Structure to design on (105 residues):
């Protein structure tokens, strides 16, 4: 990958992924404790609770992008203080809005 901005993006992404894994890490002792009590009726509530399960809010899209364009997009997103995903979604929305406006005129 060309450019230091692109490398900075991947380094930042890797740090965030490591942080996410650390936040949800369960020790072997905790796993053993959960396994030990999994069939214990005193560990479970008698009353059911209502849960709302959110559906995925979008689709994952993969596409090729020249390194120079990725570097520019990362720099622009950083300048705006938003994520690369937010930047790309915003740019796409603007382009789609312009296309819609041009075809309805």
């Amino acid at each position: 990958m060309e450019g230091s901005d692109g490398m900075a993006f991947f380094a930042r992404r890797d740090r965030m992924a490591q942080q996410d894994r650390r936040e949800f890490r369960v020790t072997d002792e905790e796993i053993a404790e959960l396994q030990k009590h999994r069939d214990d009726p005193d560990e479970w509530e008698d009353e059911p609770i209502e849960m709302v399960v959110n559906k995925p809010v979008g689709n994952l899209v993969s596409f090729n992008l020249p390194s120079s364009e990725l570097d520019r997009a990362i720099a622009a997103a950083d300048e705006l203080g938003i994520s690369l995903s937010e930047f790309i979604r915003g740019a796409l929305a603007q382009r789609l809005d312009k296309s819609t406006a041009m075809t309805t005129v």
Remarks:
- Helices lie at 4-23, 28-37, 67-80, 84-104.
